[in-house]
Amino acid sequence: MWKYLLEKEFKQFFRDPGLPRMALMFPVLMMLVFPFAVSMEIRNINLAVVDGSRSEESSRLLEKCTSSGYFRLVDMCRSPEEAMRLMDENKVDAIITIGSDFGKDIATGSGFPVGIKVNTVNGTRGSIGAQYLANCIMMYLQDRNPSAGAEASPAMDISEKYYFNSLLDYKLFMIPALIVIGITMITAFLPSLNIVSEKETGTIEQINVTPVSKSAFIICKMIPYWVIAFFVLTACLLIAWAVFGYTCRGNVLWLYLFTTLDIIVMAGLGLLISNYSSNAQQAMFVIWFFAVIFMLMSGIFTPIASMPDWARAITYFNPMRYYADAMRAVYLKGSTPADVWYDAAGLAAIGTVMVSWAIASYRKDRS
């Protein structure tokens, strides 16, 4: 019985010419396009300068800022009012104002008459742009007087070390997250349309009059999507290695373990929604509603620690929270299940509820 049910499900999947193509092209496009598009590394920040000094020192400061590659000099303004007008027109993202006594003050050490203004309509772009500018100014000061820091605090030696992503490469940080998003979307959307499509075509009635148990029916519905998800995961890992040179620092088998747990959760949720939906459009809207909430509250884009207490409490019911945390820990840090056992426990608990609910909610009439 199980053999014939699985054969039916795979034939049903490959009968639709669009689904195999989507399963094949989705990981390729996701891994080749999204790492460059979904990035917190801000470049081409439009910069306006109000240089009241016009000295050699102010030129060196501006050269340090523009040579960083993050800023694009738009205009040398004659007054702060002119620069603010450009910012009001959204032609400028940041403004540096250099006082007329900059050259003399920097030489005598009596002050540092430099002001920074940023456009924070886009809060992320504005805050990161301000940090870039501050770093450029600090680099200028260090280049001008490299021994100043040592004279000011001879007993203190500060050095920075970045673990797990030493080059602060945002693509490396996003690769595991994109894998999580891709697998979650596929294993949620496709099962949610499965039973609904059989309802619409009428083939579900043929299953209902057979002695196939509800549990066998639901489990056989999930197995093809395990195969698809494993294919997507394998393709993503190979593309990350071949194109970007990134490899998993931990045991790749742990990635498949957590992927299996996530498939159980999301496929169970998709089948559960399919049981309660009367048509494909309704199922699509409901699963999209949950998918957006899962992504926004998973910690993929916004750290969970930065959320308010009530939002952090909600994330404990979000399977993507556990899956994303486990994937990043294994891929970037080389963690083992013993290090992230709580993620496995969370996925297993939610998966048990989803699959049990999907089996119980499937109405099989034998009349």
UniProtKB/TrEMBL annotation:
<comment type="similarity">
    <text>Belongs to the ABC-2 integral membrane protein family.</text>
</comment>
<feature type="transmembrane region" description="Helical">
    <location>
        <begin position="285"/>
        <end position="305"/>
    </location>
</feature>
<keyword id="KW-0472">Membrane</keyword>
<dbReference type="InterPro" id="IPR047817">
    <property type="entry name" value="ABC2_TM_bact-type"/>
</dbReference>
<keyword id="KW-0813">Transport</keyword>
<dbReference type="GO" id="GO:0140359">
    <property type="term" value="F:ABC-type transporter activity"/>
</dbReference>
<dbReference type="GO" id="GO:0005886">
    <property type="term" value="C:plasma membrane"/>
</dbReference>
<feature type="transmembrane region" description="Helical">
    <location>
        <begin position="253"/>
        <end position="273"/>
    </location>
</feature>
<dbReference type="InterPro" id="IPR013525">
    <property type="entry name" value="ABC2_TM"/>
</dbReference>
<feature type="transmembrane region" description="Helical">
    <location>
        <begin position="21"/>
        <end position="38"/>
    </location>
</feature>
<feature type="transmembrane region" description="Helical">
    <location>
        <begin position="340"/>
        <end position="360"/>
    </location>
</feature>
<feature type="domain" description="ABC transmembrane type-2">
    <location>
        <begin position="126"/>
        <end position="365"/>
    </location>
</feature>
<keyword id="KW-1133">Transmembrane helix</keyword>
<dbReference type="InterPro" id="IPR051449">
    <property type="entry name" value="ABC-2_transporter_component"/>
</dbReference>
<keyword id="KW-0812">Transmembrane</keyword>
<feature type="transmembrane region" description="Helical">
    <location>
        <begin position="172"/>
        <end position="190"/>
    </location>
</feature>
<keyword id="KW-1003">Cell membrane</keyword>
<dbReference type="Pfam" id="PF12698">
    <property type="entry name" value="ABC2_membrane_3"/>
</dbReference>
<feature type="transmembrane region" description="Helical">
    <location>
        <begin position="223"/>
        <end position="247"/>
    </location>
</feature>
<protein>
    <submittedName>
        <fullName>ABC transporter permease</fullName>
    </submittedName>
</protein>
